[in-house]
Amino acid sequence: MKKFLLASLPLIAMSSIVIAAPRFDTEAPIAYMTDLSSGAVLYQKNADKQIPPASMAKMMTVYVAFDLIEKGKLKLDDKFRVNEGTWKKWNNQGSTMFLGVGDEVSVSDLLHGIVTLSGNDACVVLAEGIAGTEEAFVGLMNKRAKELGMSKSRFGNSNGWPDEGRTMVTAKDLAALGAATVNNFPKLYDDFYGQDEFAWNGIKQTNRNPLIGKVAGSDGLKTGHTDEAGYGFTGSAEQKGRRLVSVLAGLDSYGSRVEESVKFMNWGFNAWEPRKLFDKGTKVQNAEVQLGDSSTVSLVAAKDLFATLPKASDGKISMKVTYDGPIKAPIVKGQPIATLIVTSEDVDQQRIPLVAGEDVGEAGFFNRAWAGLKSLLGLA
């Protein structure tokens, strides 16, 4: 059963003043921005429309590889050989890492070739090396997409090359993928994203990320361009502990992608600000526990929790805690078990995870028997 609890507001001033969300205009037909520090959606324009991602699809190829590395099923120094068929198909086909026939290339170099150089050839060599065939690897991509809740996206190849509509995504799903990459693999993200350049076979190429050198704290994620998709970019930057992820798609030129991407990210940082709700470790509420050695468990902030509001806003906010309960024991300290929902007149709902503040073991035999009897008698 879904439980709702009102949370106290010790740090939030209440006011009758209502300040509208900051205005932003973009020529991009598709746009989306979220603040990972709070979960707030700052902007959305046709964010659920299915679109071809072009090279932004490579984010999922990298995500699959990161996931396998994290699980110990793939090593950065593993090497894959470039076969002649793959080379013939992808040599100089769009963006390339300039791999050669017979090259033995490490996973680390292939990932740099994908993230920094956008190499179509690097994607296919990595995919074939991991799964045997690109088709089998695409199965892993779609499996991960489903796990991440990318319900309106599907992948037909490893590099986003036009494939008669088999590969389609949404801006919202691309942002979710970017957020998952940052949050789930922080060390790998730092190691591979945000590099200025990379060289292979004596050929040095620079990163096409339009934010690098123009927006402080920028380090990701991926550009994309085909005639079908237009110019797109999924970007990420962090300033003063706030990390934003943005998506723009369908722009008509390289220059407009640069201009709009920089303008969009600067707006996200300059027009909005964080408001602290709770310090890390603060107890927010209690939740009911079923068949545990305690009848309740504390719900605490796993990190400093913030809401994102327009700068200078004194608008009202309210908070409530929701969870599926009572929560069945055992419960492990730090386990995500509830959600803090922050509502404001200035921005859409912000949903922030809360975790268990302590371990709760299973109840002993007699307590479980007594609980069962009370339930049977309608006393629970």
Automatic annotation (TrEMBL):
Record's Gene3D superfamilies?
D-Ala-D-Ala carboxypeptidase, C-terminal domain, DD-peptidase/beta-lactamase superfamily
> What are the EC numbers?
3.4.16.4
PANTHER family the record matches: D-ALANYL-D-ALANINE CARBOXYPEPTIDASE, TRAFFICKING PROTEIN PARTICLE COMPLEX SUBUNIT 12
Protein name according to UniProt: serine-type D-Ala-D-Ala carboxypeptidase
This chain's function reads: Removes C-terminal D-alanyl residues from sugar-peptide cell wall precursors.
Q: Does the keyword tRNA-binding apply?
A: no
Q: Which reaction does it catalyse?
A: Preferential cleavage: (Ac)2-L-Lys-D-Ala-|-D-Ala. Also transpeptidation of peptidyl-alanyl moieties that are N-acyl substituents of D-alanine
Task: Please name the source species.
Answer: Parasphingorhabdus flavimaris
Instruction: Supply the SUPFAM superfamilies for this chain.
Output: beta-lactamase/transpeptidase-like (SSF56601), Penicillin-binding protein associated domain (SSF69189)
Task: Look up keyword Acetylation and say if it applies.
Answer: no
Pathway it belongs to?
Answer: Cell wall biogenesis; peptidoglycan biosynthesis
> Which GO molecular function entries does the Swiss-Prot or TrEMBL record give?
carboxypeptidase activity
